[in-house]
Specification:
Elements lengths: L1 H34 L4 H30 L1
Helix pairs in contact: 1-2
Length: 70
């Protein structure tokens, strides 16, 4: 049962933490666009890079979990 609980906790973190990052990035980027609309290209580029890193971290974490528990 410990193995299943560990998998559940790790996958829950792999789901909830990126969702939190996506929500925060969206909130902050919309606030930044509201303050300075002319900086939209730079804000969009930074937002995409942050989202890619968050998603890559999740994929790497899931691959590690699959390797450790398979």
């Amino acid at each position: 049962m410990d193995r299943n609980l560990a998998l559940l906790v790790i996958f829950a973190l792999c789901i909830f933490l990126p969702c939190w990052v996506f929500a925060q990035v969206g909130r902050v980027s919309i606030a930044a666009l509201g303050r300075n609309p002319s900086a939209a290209p730079k804000i969009l580029q930074t937002m995409i890079i942050v989202l890619m890193f968050a998603e890559a971290a999740v994929i790497i974490a899931m691959l590690i979990v699959f390797q450790l528990f398979s």
